[in-house]
Amino acid sequence: MRRALALAKRGWGDTHPNPMVGALIVEDGAVVAEGFHVRAGEDHAEISALKALGRKPAPGATLYVTLEPCCTHGRTPPCTDAIVNAGITRVVTGATDPNPAHAGKGFDVLRAGGIEVETGVLAEECADLNLIFNHWMGTGRPLFAAKSGVTLDGKVATRTGDSRWITGEQSRADGHRWRRLFPAIAVGAGTVRADNPRLTARVGGTEWCPWRFVFDGLLRTVADQAMPKVYTDEYRERTIVVTTPHGGMGYVRKLGALGVKTWVLPAAAPKVNFQDFRRRCGEEGITGVFFEGGAQLLSELLQMRELDYLLTYHAPVLFADDKGKSILRGLRTETLDQAIRLERVRHEVHGDDTLMRGFVKYPEKMLVDEATFTRKHYGE
Fold it and tell me: C-alpha distances in angstroms, 127 versus 35, 66, 133, 211?
């Protein structure tokens, strides 16, 4: 199963809206064929492995697959039918398919076809592989995840704004790997104006560009004399500025002339409504968004209970300064039962840094500290 997981990861970031899946066929204790799902519309991992075998499996052959085989006809025929017809004797699976149309039914079809089925092998690892797909299938909503790199005392910059680099090279490389997974990345106007980021994923010497969202309720980034890279580079048609009617149609037309898309979402104030944004992402088939800042954008996400998943890289650095800048702020947490917690937590080590990631669990009662949190617009 660990080998099947490694195969599945070859589809990292390429299979949306489908899951990553790996499969292999074993005969007499030896792996004789392997396969993985490359992208939506192409062969599923099980079919890929069967085709790689190029013949009928030997009697007693076992198929290992990271996800329950599909049993319905979508862009491709059901994998369960192909497995039964191939003469596979035993199927070992990792995670159960969260798609309600499948969700255990594939196992039933295989057993009805006379196949021995074992489930739940490395189930947590197999499920963790498809955070975006699982959330999409389970809720019908895109997964909103955020990333931060902080000191041990939770700071992202000194009191003067110095922040490069708190985390080490290995953490930053892993951050690019996560960028590569998500269909889209998002930042606030303040981050674009301060850092002028490229917002691409650089993994293994290859650069890849997701959809790049810039939250700018007043289109201040367009008013600047020097236009940001994301509006002028070779990937500018992958940039979407999320704004409000308060930004001005003249700036919207200016972006359109550059080839940059805009989503003008209704708002009474120059602040984008996250629920409207999430709904639009779903309509456009964008199943996951990776938020990388700035602090106000991420804090607004948390404050509005719209952040689903959090990844935080902790560096072995201490500021011990009350005026150091925190990545998340604006809440008034008076008791522990008002604290936000993470669930299904996973830990990783990247060089000297540690990554903690998990699903965000909100308390029943959550207070906003309006005295310390300004809600004028994003990116400050």
Answer: 18, 8, 9, 25
121, β-bridge pairs: none
Burial of 162 (0-12, 13-18, 19+ CB in 10 A): exposed
Question: How many residues would you count in the chain?
Answer: 380
Q: Give me the long-range contacts of 343-351 (CB less than 8 A, separation at least 24).
A: 344/128, 346/128, 348/174, 350/168, 350/170, 350/171, 350/173, 350/174, 350/313, 351/168, 351/169, 351/170, 351/171
DSSP string, 95-158: EPP--TTTTTHHHHHHHHTT-EEE--TTHHHHHHTTHHHHHHHHHSS-EEEEEEEE-TTSEEE-
Joined tokens for residue 241: 């500025």
Q: Tens digits of per-residue pLDDT, 53-77? A: 999 999 999 999 999 999 887 777 8
- Is residue 46 part of the annotated active site? The answer reads yes
Quick check: 110 and 91 in contact, CB under 8 A? yes
3-state SS, residue 191: helix
Prediction pTM value: 0.91
Of 46, 68, 292, 300, which is the active-site residue?
46
- Give the pLDDT confidence of 112-164 residue by residue, as tens digits: 999 999 999 999 999 999 999 999 999 999 999 999 999 999 898 888 887 78
- CB burial of 276-306 (b: ≥16 within 10 Å; e: otherwise) equals ebbeebeeeebbbbbbbbbbbbbbbbbbeeb
Structure tokens at 116: 């021995």
DSSP state of 331: B
| Residue 54 vs residues 1, 27, 153, 251, 302: alpha-carbon distances, Å | 22, 14, 57, 57, 51
